[in-house]
Amino acid sequence: MTFAPENKPGYSLRLFIGLSFAAFAIIFFIFSGLRSGLNRLVAGTDSDPDQNSRIKFEQADPLLTKIPGLADVLDRPVISSADPMLGNPAAAITLVEFSDFTCEFCRTQEKTLLSILKAYPDQIRLVWKDYPDGAADSVSRQTAIAGRCAAAQGKFWPMHDLLFDEKKLDYDSILGLAKKLDLNGGDFKKCLVDEKIKKIIDDNIEEANALDIKGVPFIFVNEKGFLGEVGLEELKQAVENEMNKL
Q1: Which residue would you say has higher pLDDT here, 5 or 82?
Q2: In whole angstroms, what is the distance from residue 114 CA to residue 91 CA?
Q3: Which of 25, 74, 130, 220 could form a disulfide with 96 if both were Cys (CB 3.0 to 4.6 A apart)?
Q4: Are 54 and 105 contained in the same domain?
Q5: Torsion region of 104: left, alpha or beta (phi above 0 gives left; psi -120 to 50 gives alpha)
Q6: 62-71 pLDDT, tens per residue?
Q7: Under DSSP, is residue 222 helix (H, G, I), strand (E, B) or coil?
Q8: Measured between alpha carbons, how far is 246 from 93 in angstroms, rounded to an integer?
Q9: Burial of 134 from C-beta contacts in 10 A (0-12 / 13-18 / 19+)
């Protein structure tokens, strides 16, 4: 009697499932590897393994590389040797005026400032800052330059007084004032177009903008600011308040 092998369909099914699972696993790992490689290629990490860490560092705190502007560091005017001054150079109280020779309110403010200077000759000093309008060819800016050119010959304050007193200001009248003060006419004319002098005016304007000054006259009594024309009594009170802090 011949015996035929027993037919076992369950064994064949398990073999088929096992082979299918193995094939699926191989395909999955191949696909996963390709996807990982593609992601690295897109991200650029294959060519630069430190790129991701560098990006994280650069983005971690963007304020680390911020360069502070003038407005970030100023809370009061900066006094330099370029600024015309009256009074006691060593005074503990400084009055700084941002002004314009063509401003009517500035003209009347000057009388008050000179009065306060006389009232406290040893306790205060008065410092001038130009704040003309921005137009390069304006009379406002030209008179500011004229004042600085007179300062170059040691006569800022006499020119200051004449400019405020002059009813009609233009190029010819400015030259006339220089002649009245016996300035060197040739040097004065050259100075009127000197870029270094213009830079002084521009620096004053930039400083005023950084201090958020909106108009003239603007007076600082040490760190306290006053916009617009300030009366004598109010200025005296401000000076007295500063003296009480000493």
Answers
A1: 82
A2: 16
A3: 220
A4: no
A5: alpha
A6: 555 555 566 6
A7: coil
A8: 9
A9: exposed
CA of residue 161 relative to chain centroid, distance: 31
* Residue (of 107, 188, 206) closest to 147 by Cα position: 188
For residues 104 and 36, membership in a common domain is answered with no
In the predicted structure, residue 212 carries a pLDDT above the cut 90: yes
Copy the structure tokens of residue 69.
Answer: 């502007």
CB contact set of 168 (below 8 Å; sequence gap of 6+): none
Q: State the residue for tokens 């005023």.
A: 208
Say whether both 52 and 110 belong to one domain. no
pLDDT at 121 over 60: yes
Task: Say which residue, 68 or 216, is predicted with more confidence.
Answer: 216
- Co-location of 85 and 196 in the same domain: yes
Report whether 220 contacts 77 (CB < 8 A).
Answer: yes
Q: What pLDDT was estimated at residue 236?
A: 96
Considering only CA atoms, which of 74, 72, 119 is closest in space to residue 95? 119
Q: Which two tokens stand for residue 175?
A: 């030259």
Task: Please report where in the chains the tokens 């002098």 appear, as a residue.
Answer: 197
Residue type, 168: K
Q: What is the amino acid identity at position 232?
A: L
User: Which backbone phi and psi does 25 adopt, to 5 degrees?
Assistant: -65, -40
Cβ 180 vs Cβ 155: under 8 Å: no
Sheet strands side by side (includes 124-130): 85-87, 124-130, 93-99, 218-221, 224-227
pLDDT for 203: 95
Strands (E), 105-190: 124-130
- Residue 123 reports pLDDT greater than 60: yes
Segments forming the whole domain that contains residue 24: 13-60
